[in-house]
Amino acid sequence: MNLQDMPSLALNQIALQLPGEPFNEPAADGFILGGFTWRHAFQDTARPVVIINAATSVRCRHYSRFADYLYANGFDVITYDYRGIGESRPPSLKNLEASWTDWGALDFEAMLKRAQREFPGQPVDVVGHSFGGCAAGLGASGHLVRHLVTVGAQFAYWRDYAPAHRWRMFGKWHVVMPLMTMLYGYFPGKRLGWLEDTPAGVVRDWCTPTSRYEKRPSGRALLAKTGHLPFASVTAKTLAISISDDPYGTVAAIERLLAYFSNGTNTHLRITPMDIGEEEVGHFAFFRSAYQATLWPIALSWLRSGELAPDTPGRTVPRSEPF
C-alpha cells in the first residue's frame, strides 16, 4: 500500500510525525533564506514538489498544517520566509534592503532553483497566498511552474479594497504603516499586532497608490533593469481562488493581478462562506486546519490535475477586460 491509498486520517497522523526539515538557501545576491522541506524518503520523478509562497509579512510556519496535508497526499513541499521575515530575519531590519520584487525575483527564484536541485526531474507546482501569488510571477524561472494555485492574490491597490472597508484599510496600510516605518526604519508590525515586522522597501511598495505593479518602486526598478516583468514567462495552469468576504481579494483585485499572467491558462474561482457552510472566512483563514475538509481539497485537486472537481463549491468568474 502506498501513501495515496491510505485513509486520510492515517495520512495526516503520518504527516504530523514527519515535520518539515529546516534548511538555509542563499539567494542569488547571497542573502541566506530559511525554510522547511517536507521530503518523501524515495525520489519519484512523477511526484510534484510544491513551493508555498506566503502572504506579506506572514511567517511560513502559518502554512505548516497545509504543507502536512499536501505531504500526506503525495507531494513534496517547500515552505520558506522572505528576507526580513521569520526564519530569514537578520538581527536588524533598519538597514535591510528588501522589497516586494526582491521577495519574488530573488527569494522565490531561489526556491525554484532549490526545487530543481533537490527534486530533479519532478514537476514544480506553487501555492501563493496574497502577495505570494504575485511573487509567483516575478521569478525568472517561472516557466518551470506546472500548476499554480493562488488564494486572495493581489498587490494591494487601495481602490480595489472592499468598499465597506476601504477607508479604514487605507488609513491603516497607506497612512499609519508608512508613518510608523519612517519613525522606526521598518514597520514594527509585531508590536502593533499587525503581522510581522516588515522591511521599509516592502512598505514602500505596498503603500504606493498606483494600479500597476510596474509603477510600484521596486517594479519600476525591475522594469528599468530588465526591460520587462517576468509574469509572462509563467505558462502554468493557474487557479485563482477568492473568498467573497475577503476585503483585500475582491474580484477587481484578483483580476488585476491575474491579467499579468497573460500566457497561463487562468481560472478564477469565487467562493462565498455560505458555499462551504460557514459564516465567514476572510483573507487569512484558508490555510487553517479548520478548512481541511472544505477548502483544501480544491487546491489539492488543482495541484494534481490542473482541473476543478465537479463538486467544487463556488462559481468561476468570467474573464474580464484587461486592466
What does the model show?
Helix content is about 30%, strand content about 15%. With about 325 residues, it is α/β, with parallel strands linked by helices. It has a single domain (about 5-165, about 220-315), classed as 3-Layer(aba) Sandwich (Rossmann fold), CATH 3.40.50.1820. The radius of gyration is 19 Å and the shape is globular. The protein starts with 7 loop residues before the first helix and ends in a 7-residue tail after the last strand.
What is the terminal separation in angstroms? 49 Å
Shape type: globular
CATH topology type = Rossmann fold
Domain module tally: 1
The percent range for strand residues is 15-25%
The count of strands amounts to 11
The top-level CATH class is: Alpha Beta
Calculate Rg over CA atoms: 19 Å
Number of distinct helices: 10
Order of helices and strands: HEEEHEHEHEHEHEHHEHEHE
Would you spell out the secondary-structure blueprint of this structure?
Blueprint: H1 8-17, E1 21-26, E2 32-38, E3 49-53, H2 64-72, E4 76-80, H3 100-118, E5 124-129, H4 131-135, E6 145-151, H5 166-184, E7 186-187, H6 189-192, E8 198-199, H7 200-207, H8 217-226, E9 237-243, H9 251-258, E10 265-271, H10 296-305, E11 315-316
Parallel strand pairs: 3-4, 3-5, 5-6, 6-9, 9-10
Antiparallel strand pairs: 1-2, 2-4, 7-8, 10-11
Please give a quick description of this structure.
This protein has helices spanning 8-17, 64-72, 100-118, 131-135, 166-184, 189-192, 200-207, 217-226, 251-258, 296-305, and strands at 21-26, 32-38, 49-53, 76-80, 124-129, 145-151, 186-187, 198-199, 237-243, 265-271, 315-316. The chain is of the alpha/beta class and 323 residues long.
